[in-house]
């Protein structure tokens, strides 16, 4: 979210790098993909956003076989292109210690974003809900209090809950032009987000909705 806000403030387009489209198991293909990526960004004056950057900017390893040698060559090529890149590149990671030291030395700014406090989370929950979506059934205070999540995770939860509601909408509330988001739908999305993060969520966190968590655990 911070990367998008920065690109918007600079009035520049932002391209989010899909690592699955960049990294290739065949020798030399990753370098070709990176070359096309940086060449295009140089021409178009685009902000490059590398999410989960540790997957691409990871530490070089001791060479034990041909695979290690070519993996290190890819990292060296990426280092060289990053140095030549004249635009703005933003790297995001939850695992800074896994980034190669050579990359860290070349970063002009390193900004740490701590998890938002409850009041900030409440504001994030409110902001990420699209204005055309009826969220009157949601207990925003409960969601903000019980689930210490970053803004990106909160946005992902609401996005997935909206998708699920669109696929199997409940009846709109009176005077509501669209189906309403329910607490059950959002909490299911919360559980799935925690699963993606390999983090457990407790019945205490679900509070009065604990029976729903039990059903999800046994589904």
UniProtKB/TrEMBL annotation:
InterPro entries reported for this sequence: 26S_Proteasome_ATPase, ATPase_AAA_core, P-loop_NTPase
Gene3D superfamilies: P-loop containing nucleotide triphosphate hydrolases
A GO MF term: ATP binding
Source organism, top-level taxon: Bacteria
CDD domains linked to this entry: RecA-like_protease
Record key words, sorted: ATP-binding, Nucleotide-binding
Domain ATPase AAA-type core per the UniProt entry, residue ranges: 1-115
PANTHER family in the record: 26S PROTEASOME REGULATORY SUBUNIT (PTHR23073)
Protein name per the record: ATPase AAA-type core domain-containing protein
Native source organism of the sequence: Halomicronema hongdechloris C2206
């Amino acid at each position: 979210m911070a990367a998008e806000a920065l690109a918007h403030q600079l009035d520049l387009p932002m391209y989010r790098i899909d690592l699955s489209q960049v990294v290739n198991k065949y020798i030399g293909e990753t370098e070709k993909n990176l070359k096309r990526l940086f060449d295009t960004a140089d021409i178009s004056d685009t902000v490059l956003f590398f999410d989960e950057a540790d997957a691409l900017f990871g530490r070089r390893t001791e060479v034990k076989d041909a695979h290690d040698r070519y993996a290190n060559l890819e990292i060296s090529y990426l280092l060289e292109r990053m140095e030549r890149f004249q635009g703005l590149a933003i790297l995001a990671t939850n695992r800074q210690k896994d980034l190669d030291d050579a990359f860290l030395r070349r970063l002009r700014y390193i900004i740490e974003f701590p998890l938002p406090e409850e009041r900030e989370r409440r504001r994030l929950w409110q902001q990420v809900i699209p204005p055309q979506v009826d969220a009157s059934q949601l207990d925003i205070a409960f969601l903000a209090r019980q689930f210490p999540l970053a803004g990106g995770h909160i946005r992902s939860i609401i996005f997935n809950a909206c998708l699920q509601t669109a696929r199997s909408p409940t009846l709109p509330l009176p005077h509501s032009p669209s189906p309403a988001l329910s607490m059950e739908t959002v909490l299911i999305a919360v559980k799935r987000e925690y699963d993606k993060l390999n983090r457990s969520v407790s019945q205490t966190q679900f509070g009065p909705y604990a029976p729903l968590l039990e059903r999800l655990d046994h589904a």
